[in-house]
């Protein structure tokens, strides 16, 4: 709805005070699975959206962003030659090169292992600090949401209502290990309590069924 591809059932969606009535051309999507073109090398993928830029400007931008995401030496590697984390860093570079007004991300780190996910989180924050576009970041990780965001919208289960808006007052750049920050833990606990109340999370004292035991009648 923010990007203009769906219409709300009721109410109105606006960006910078302007109602969204049709698809917007000023945003970029990043999904859980990288969407690099398999027939293009890394450099070719990065320059694909640079319409109107001169050859010299393209070379400068590609070199700059490849350096920012730590992919020097892989300019002519194809996507299948890059790890999942490298592909996702390439996605970030490609998206931010065109200076989007809004970056829409749908669980962009979901397919990454824990350490790579942590590194790419730091990469995203570092890149964001240089340009500061608006980023809509959808995640199931509470720690990731608090670690990246200035504003968290906590959503309950279907129909997906917003149960609280939380302003995260943590200085930037944020440390690699956020668990040692007392304020970080307080934000995480606050969100977890919502999920416990809504029945999304259950404590150790919740009733359980032994294997093979029939479920009680509704």
Task: List strands and helices in order, with pairings.
Layout: E1 14-15, E2 18-19, E3 27-30, H1 42-47, H2 55-68, H3 84-97, E4 102-106, H4 114-131, E5 134-138, H5 142-148, E6 151-155, E7 162-167, H6 182-197
Parallel strand pairs: 3-4, 4-5
Antiparallel strand pairs: 1-2, 6-7
Helix pairs in contact: 2-3, 3-4, 5-6
Description:
The structure is a single chain. It contains six helices and seven strands; from the N terminus they run βββαααβαβαββα. It is an alpha/beta fold and 218 residues long. It has a domain of 56 residues. Strands 3-4-5 form a three-stranded parallel beta sheet, with helices on one face. A hairpin with a 2-residue loop joins β1 and β2. The two termini are 37 Å apart. About 3% of the residues have low confidence.
Helix content: 25-40%
Low-confidence stretches: 208-213
Q: Which class best fits the helix and strand makeup?
A: alpha/beta
Classify the beta-strand content into a percent band. 5-15%
* Largest beta-sheet characterization: 3 strands, parallel
Distance between the termini: 37 Å
Count of extended strands: 7
Shape estimate: globular
Oligomeric category: single chain
Strand order of the largest sheet: 3-4-5
Keywords:
globular; 6 helices; alpha/beta; 218 residues
């Amino acid at each position: 709805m923010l990007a203009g591809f769906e219409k709300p059932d009721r109410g109105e969606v606006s960006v910078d005070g302007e109602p969204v009535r049709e698809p917007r051309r000023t945003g970029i999507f990043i999904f859980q699975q990288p969407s690099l073109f398999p027939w293009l090398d890394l450099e070719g993928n990065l320059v694909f959206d640079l319409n109107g830029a001169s050859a010299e400007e393209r070379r400068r931008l590609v070199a700059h962003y490849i350096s920012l995401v730590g992919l020097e030496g892989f300019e002519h590697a194809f996507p299948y030659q890059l790890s999942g984390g490298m592909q996702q860093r390439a996605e970030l570079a490609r998206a931010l090169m065109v200076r989007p007004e809004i970056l829409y991300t749908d669980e962009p780190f979901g397919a990454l292992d824990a350490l790579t996910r942590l590194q790419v989180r730091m990469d995203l924050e570092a890149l964001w600090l240089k340009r500061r576009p608006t980023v809509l970041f959808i995640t199931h990780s509470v720690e990731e949401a608090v670690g990246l965001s200035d504003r968290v919208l906590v959503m309950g289960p279907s129909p997906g209502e917003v149960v609280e808006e939380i302003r995260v007052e943590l200085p930037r750049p944020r440390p690699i290990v956020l668990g040692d920050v007392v304020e970080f833990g307080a934000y995480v606990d606050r969100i977890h309590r919502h999920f416990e109340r809504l029945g999304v999370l259950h404590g150790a004292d919740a009733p359980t069924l032994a294997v093979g035991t029939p479920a009680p009648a509704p």
